[in-house]
Design brief:
two-stranded antiparallel ribbon, mainly alpha
């Protein structure tokens, strides 16, 4: 099955948002669009192919970004309890996290893209309803979060945006290695 270029994920509610909230959502939507665009006209098999030395594939990247965004938005709402204690994770836990970077048997590109669109809609609803982007929570326990600093909703959204943009760049390289298609240029 070939999946054509996905549609935009901006909801009517998100477009009614103004100010900094709207700027963050518009920029995130743009980078999501770039990421999704790399999958245009691909089959499920192509979306699962590794085309570089990296273990990454296009479908897996989108699965990872979906999971990452879902988890960080839960953090905005619930704090560190929305995330695992990374210092207590087992090899099995890390193997599950690694599996999200691959298309699994039975997964389809259309399904992966729909899950991403669903998370995007939820993020837009949450951000639209945030009265204050300065509201913050301590980060979960993790070796990479020394001293358990706090992150505000704004900082979390900037992190989601940065990670989405970074993975859109990865996706562009993977797609160009697959069949020469580029997101831009």
């Amino acid at each position: 099955m070939t999946v054509n270029q996905p549609t935009t994920d901006q909801s009517a509610e998100a477009s009614a948002v103004t100010g900094e909230h709207a700027d963050l959502l518009r920029t995130l939507a743009e980078h999501r669009r770039f990421l999704r665009f790399t999958t245009r006209d691909l089959t499920d098999e192509q979306a699962g192919l590794r085309t570089t030395k990296s273990a990454l594939c296009l479908g897996g990247l989108i699965k990872h970004v979906t999971s990452m965004e879902r988890t960080w938005v839960r953090f905005i709402l619930e704090g560190a309890s929305a995330m695992p204690d990374f210092t207590e994770m087992t090899e099995e836990d890390f193997a599950r996290r690694e599996a999200e970077f691959r298309m699994q048997p039975g997964e389809t590109l259309a399904g992966v893209l729909e899950a991403y669109a669903e998370v995007a809609r939820h993020t837009e609803e949450v951000v639209a309803g945030l009265p204050d982007l300065n509201a913050s929570w301590p980060l979960p326990k993790a070796p990479w979060f020394e001293g358990r600093p706090e992150w505000s909703a704004r900082r979390v959204l900037l992190h989601i945006l940065a990670e989405t943009a970074q993975h859109a760049g990865h996706a562009d390289i993977i797609r160009e290695s697959l069949d020469g298609a580029k997101t831009m240029g």
